[in-house]
Amino acid sequence: MKQVYLTGSLSKRLPPFRVIFLLTCWLILQANSSFAQWTRRADALKKRSECPSVLYKNKIYIFGGFGEFPNLEQTSEVYDPATNKWTLRASFPSGKKVSHQGVVLVDDKIWHIGGRAVDTNGPVTSQVIIYDITNNRWLNGPQLIDPATGRALPLGGGGAALVGRTLHVFGGFSPTICLDQTKYHLTLDVDKWRANPSGTRWENKSAPMPLARNHFSTVVLNGKIYAIGGQVKHDCGATELNYVHAYDPVNNSWARLSNLPAPRSHNEMGTFPVDGKIYQVGGQGSGDDAQKTVFVFNPDANGGSGAWSNATQYTLPKYYFGVSAKVVGTKLIISHGAQKLVSDERRETYTASFTRHTPYKFGFTAKCFSKSVSSGATIIVKNLLYTVENQKTYSLSSNAGWLTITKNSSGTALPTGIDVEATVNTSGLAAGSYSATVTAKSTGSGTTYSSASFCVNITVGGTSTGSQGVVSFTLINADSDKDIQTLNDGATLDIAKLPAKNLNIRVNTSPSAVGSVKAELTGAQSLIKIESSAPYAVFGESNSNYNAWVPKLGNYTLKATPYSGTSASGTAGSALSIAFQVVNSAGRTASGPAALKNPEPGKPAGIKLNVYPNPGSGTNLQVTLENFTQNEQVSLVMYNALGKVVHTSTLQTNYEGKGALTMPINGLQKGYYIVKAQGTSGSKQAKVIVE
Asked: Is Repeat among this UniProt entry's keywords (predicted)?
């Protein structure tokens, strides 16, 4: 950055009008200044930090964040690099503003999942709200629910990502700020929820993140979810981390990767994938220090463990944490964030030239499958097809007659992945080993993408020719995939007393593996289901991951028949029939994607907070309150410039709605502090300097 200095002697020699002229030029230079590679662009409309940002159709959408710490910003805005213009968008709905939420782009909608409500001291929330980009409005989403209990699940500071058409939510703190969790890795099929909001629930069947932490960055790249850095214990003695993990959704497993060069947190909105690599911009390091580094991760290095480097050519113009960073075309764009102090929220926008090396290619998350299959059986192989960058139309093919593409044989592949399935049918195959390959090739106009393949190896065995029969039914907890009880003839199921709302029924046979089982359910709900491989689930399963059945109240009859061949073919064995009923002593509610109103919340009128002396140089500050309600409980919190709580007190106002207390400041370092009063009448804050 160029500097202009006006020394005392120079100002004395120059006429006043020339001094004014030089000062004006200097101010203009500052407004359009460049920090080496960085160029100042139009300022955002609102200052904010730790604000989620999403890139959609070459525009950057910014939500909430801390606008005047510790308060949350209500507004949203969007930046168009083509016009260098910021525009306000619909604000958070009244009572719904949030921070520390997981943010995921699903088609033209941005999901805000969980987080921390009210302000920086607010409680963890289970709310899910959705911003509709096309219509500039907010919608209700499916509240986070603990599948095991059916109760609301507050969760914030965690990771959220879309892989295929499944949302993943994991890590973070729950149910309170200081408790980092590894109990939950929630998933939701977004298409099923859209089609049936009241009947689709969050599931907790996926492997949890190995290391509990919060404020880590989440990225989807090459068909996997990356969890990068983060911290532990948030407001309770936080420590920044340099750990990196990747989740494989096909194999439902996590892997430890190469560590960050240094601990980092608070850069969720500044971490992104581009051209097959992951960039992490700024953030908070050890000692709560803001950073100006840009780290780059190459996932292909070190035999798949990856390697980090410091992209010094993009060193930031200032020290930032909670800064938004995205690449649009050939520009790296940063905005907002806080500089050094959490209370120093910014609205400047900068761009730097960014060299692109785009790999135009497809990939599959799983490279090969090996299965043992009985003769005459069918099994389904599931994989994830992705592009490294951009989207591209494709078609799938198999080079073996016994392997058929049965889901998404053609379509448009995306960086977040497309779920594909291939069905193995061993009918007519002799015992032995077989191999086949599924290949994805680009179609349509435009750039041709490099093809990708995965292999399927099977070993075909013989079938049992002995007598077959159904011996019993087992009620299954579809959330945990664990047995609940044997389902006997004449049973009464009170779902209010069961350990889960999501159920399934397993058919048990003798021998344990038969050609297939046909289940017929009649009564309050009707269903015919044929399963050709164990476990034989009345409502279906995938790799022993049971589908959820939410039963209607009423009477049922269930009959299951085993067959020697697949798809209910061959010789029928001994069937078993039972009758049972379902009752529920507790009600259930569910909400769909109803539109929300977006009024701006009004500020509490008239409440006053006075802090004196200010600046304070003694051992205490005097705090007085006015215009609260009679006998109101008011909490008072003092924060330092890094946003850490240094003192808390509570008082009760008198019959006039007034109150007073003494707040100690002895032992505090010199500097800038914030005192905040919060009660049912509202909140008020004051800035204080301790000398």
From this structure: yes
Structure token digits, residue 669: 């370092």
Q: Residue 419 pairs with which residues in a beta bridge? A: 384
Q: Which fold has domain 608-690?
A: Immunoglobulin-like (2.60.40)
pTM attached to this predicted model: 0.69
SS (H, E, C) 181-200: CCCCEEEEEHHHHHHCHHHC
| Phi, psi at 23, each rounded to 5° | -65, -40
pLDDT band at 3 (very low <50, low <70, confident <90, very high): very low
**CATH node for 469-583:** 2.60.40
Residue 94 Cα distances to 77, 90, 545, angstroms: 17, 11, 39
Give how far Cα 470 sits from Cα of 44, 231, 526, 532, 561, Å: 67, 52, 20, 14, 7
Q: How far is CA 617 from the centre of its chain?
A: 45
Per-residue confidence (pLDDT) for residue 489, from 0 to 100: 87
Rounded Cα–Cα distance for residues 63 and 105 (Å):
13
Token pair belonging to 429: 């195959």
User: Tokens 């004395």 label which residue?
Assistant: 12
Query: pLDDT over 70 for what percent of the chain?
Result: 91
C-alpha angle 405/162/285, rounded to 5°?
Answer: 140
Q: Is the pLDDT of residue 654 over 70?
A: yes
Q: Three-class SS of residue 170?
A: strand
3-state SS, 210-277, equals: CCCCECCEEEEECCEEEEECCEECCCCCCEECCCEEEEECCCCEEEECCCCCCCCECCHHHEEEECCE
What distance in Å separates the CA atoms of residue 24 and residue 10, rounded to the nearest whole number?
16
Distances (CA, A) of 168 to 98, 189, 248, 539: 19, 9, 12, 23
The CA–CA distances, whole Å, from 68 to 71, 72, 372, 599, 643 equal 5, 7, 61, 20, 11
Question: Partners of 110 in the beta sheet?
Answer: 105, 131
The CATH number for 362-461, chosen from 2.60.40.10, 3.40.50.1820, 2.60.40.1930, 2.30.140.10, is 2.60.40.10
Which residues in the chain are classed under CATH 2.60.40.10? 362-461
Question: By the 8 A CB rule, do 281 and 267 touch?
Answer: yes
- From its phi and psi, is residue 648 left (phi > 0), alpha (psi between -120 and 50) or beta? beta
Closest listed residue to residue 639, CA positions, set 583, 688, 573:
688
Alpha carbons 410 and 486: distance in angstroms, whole number: 43
**C-alpha dihedral over 226, 227, 229, 231, to 10 degrees?**
170
Length of the chain: 691
Residue 671: which of 610, 617, 621, 619 has the closest Cα?
A: 617
Q: Show the CA angle centred on residue 328, arms to residues 322 and 333, nearest 5°.
A: 35
Q: Edge-to-edge strand order for the sheet containing 349-353?
A: 34-35, 38-41, 349-353, 331-335, 324-328
Q: Hey, what are 517's tokens? A: 């089982």
Residue 214 burial (10 A CB sphere; 0-12, 13-18, 19+): buried
Q: Would you list the DSSP string of 296-322?
A: EEETTSGGGT-EEEE-GGG--SS-BBS
Residue extent(s) of CATH 2.120.10.80 domains in the chain: 47-269
Distances (CA, A) of 604 to 36, 628, 686: 46, 10, 15
Question: Residue 600 pLDDT > 70, yes or no?
Answer: no
Q: Which letter does DSSP use for residue 329 in this model?
A: T
Write the DSSP symbol of residue 365: S
What would the 3-class secondary structure string for 611-666 be? EECCCECCCEEEEEEECCCCCCEEEEEEECCCCCEEEEEEEECCCCCCEEEEEECC
Dihedral sign (CA 306, 309, 314, 320): positive
Instruction: Say whether the peptide bond before residue 359 is cis (omega within 30 degrees of 0).
Output: no
pLDDT band (50, 70, 90) for residue 211:
very high
